[in-house]
Amino acid sequence: MALSEELYKYSGSVNEQLARYGVKFGIYKNGVFNEQLFPFDMIPRVIGQEEFLRLERGLKQRVNALNEFIKDIYSGRKILADGVIAEEFVYSGSGYLVQCDGVSPPGGIYPHISGIDLVQAQDGSWYILEDNLRIPSGASYPMIARELCRRSFPEEFAKHRIEDNRNYADLLCRTMNYVNTGGLNVILTPGRYNAAYFEHSYFAEKTGAHLVTCEDLFVEDEYLYFRDYSGRRERVGAVYRRISDEYIDPVNFNRESLIGIPHIFDVYRKGNTALLNAPGNGAADDKGIYYFVPRMIKYYLGEEPILNNAPTYLPYYEADMSYVLANFDNLVLKDVAEAGGYGVVFGSKLTSEQKAGFLDMLKAEPRRFIAQEVIDFRDIEIYDGGGTVPRKADLRAFVLMSDEPVVWKSGLTRFSRRPDSFIVNSSQGGGFKDTWVMTED
Amino acid sequence: MSVLSRENSSRLLWLGRYSERVYTTLRYFADIFDAMIDKTLPGVFESKEEFSARFCFDEGDESSVYSSLIRAYDNAIELREELGSDTFSYIQLAVYEMNKAKNSPAPLLQLQRVIDNIAAFWGMVDDRIEDEHARSIIKLGKRIERVDLYARMRAGRNELVREIRRLTHRIPQTGLTYDEEAVRRLNVLASEEIMNYPAIIAEAASLLG
User: Fold this and answer.
1) Which domains does chain A have, with CATH numbers?
2) What is the pTM of this model?
3) Which of A126, A318, A358, B124 has the most CB atoms at less than 10 Å from its CB?
4) Is the ipTM above a cut-off of 0.85?
C-alpha cells in the first residue's frame, strides 16, 4: 500500500500532541523514577485484511487453549495426568499459585486481556514469541496515537480503508461487564509511580470505570467495596487490576505488600467479585510453558495450531540441552523469570569467557532458561528525520475475552531504535507505531 | 464593586455567549469532521472540506464559527478595562489561530489551539475579573449559550440537566433583573424524564426578558 510522503511532515506535530496529552511511561533507573515520552513513528505497520483474518483465527485458537489449560491445572489436571506436559514445568514455575487451586473465576474466564507478542519472518509468516496473560500493557498507545494522527493527516485516513482501533475501551468495558458480579467496574492501579500509569488513567477515562488505589477499596463480609470521599460505600463487581498477583492481597500472598487489599482474593474465591486477569495466570505464560502451547491446542481443541511458535528448546530435556550446547552461537537464550527484554542473551554476542560462565549457569539451572532459533524477522521502516531506515519490530496483539475471544483490530508495534538491536521494549529505548488493519485488501 | 455600564454588562454577556459558542461548536465540529474522514454523512455538506470551509471558516455566514469568534472579539476589544489586557489577549490569540487553521490541511490541529485559547480565557476570567457581578454576567452568558446549544443539538438528558442547574444557580449572582418565573419553569423542565428541547430553548432565551 502506498503511503503518502506527506506523513513525514507530521512526525513532529504528532509527537508534540502525544507530549501535550502526557502519553508517557515510567521507568526506574538507579532507584529514581522518571517519566519518558514513548517515541512514536509516523509510518504505520499495515496488515491486510486476509492476513489479519488468519492472525485472528490463530490468536483466538491460542487464547482459547490457554484458557482451557489454566482451568485444567487449577482443577482436574487432566493434561498432566495424560503426560502432555511434565508436572515439574507447571509446579516449579513462579506463576503457578497453589492458592488458586479449585477456584473458578466468574464466567470461567482466566485471561480476560491477553497480549500476544509476534514477529514476522522474512517470508511473511508470523511467529508467536511470547504470551502475556498477567498484566499485558500497551494498547493505550496506538489508541491515542490513532486519534492524534487522524487530526494531523486526515487525508491519509480518507484515502485508505482502515479498521478504527479507538474501540479498544468498548471491548474492555464489554469484558468487564461480562464478568461483573454486581457493582462498579474499577481499575486498580498501584499509583502514579507505576510504569504504565498513563494507560491506567486513560483506560479509566475511556471506559468510565473508576481508577482506584488500594486505599479506596475494602473487604467486608466477603464483599468488596469502594469507599468514596464522604465515607459512603458501593459494591465492586469487577476489578481490572494492574497490580501483580503477589502484591494484590497481603493476607493471601505477599505479606509485605503495601499496595494490596487484604482479603480481596477471598472475595474473588467466593465469586463475589471478578479479578481481571485472574490470579494464577502466570502458570500459563511462563516462557517455559510457552514451549507446550502447540500441544495444548491439539490436546484441548483437537486442532492443529494456526500460528507457530518460534522454534524453541528446553535445556531441561537432555536432547534439547545437547542441541543447545552444539548450536549455542546460533541461539537466543531467555531467562524464564525475566521480562521487558531483560534476561535475553544472544549466543553469538558473548565473549568466550562470558559464554563459559553462562554455560555453567545453564547446566546448573536448566529449568531457568529456554533457547530459541534467532528468527531473522522482517525489518520495518521508520522515519529518522532525514529519510526512512529499516529497524526490527514486533507486534503485540490484544485478545479480549467475554462470551468469546475478540481480537482487537490493531496492536502495539514496537521497534528498536538502534540499527543493530532486536530489543524493542520501551524500557530499553524502543519506540512504537500504530498498526493499521485494512478493511479490504 | 466597580461601576459597570449597561452597555458593558451587555457586552460581557455576549462575550460569554460567543466564546462559548466557539468552544462548543468546535468540539462538535471535531467529532463530525472525524466521522467524515471515513464517510460522507447525509446532510447539507458533501465533503469534510466543504463542511470545514462553510461551518468553520465562512466569513460571510453569520452562523459560522469564524463569525462567532469575531463577534466575541468585537465585544472583548471594548471590554479591555473590565477584562484586563492579559485576559483579552487570549481572544486575540484565538483569532490568530483561527486564521492559521483556515488554510491548514489538518484543521483539527490548529483549531485545538483556538479551543486552548478559549479555555485559557475562561481561566483568566476567573482569576482576573475582580468584580463579582461582572464575572457572573460573563459566566451567565456562557451558561445560557451552553443550554441553548445543547438543547439544539439534542444532548442527552444528564448533560442538559447539569447545564440547566448551572445556569439557574448562576443567574441570581449577577445582580441582573431576570424573570424568576422563567427560572422556575426551566427547573420544572429539567425535572421531566423526557426533555422538551424547544421549550428549554425558549425559556433560556426569555430569562433576561
Assistant:
1) 5-303+377-437 (no CATH), 311-373 (3.30.1490.270)
2) 0.86
3) A126
4) no
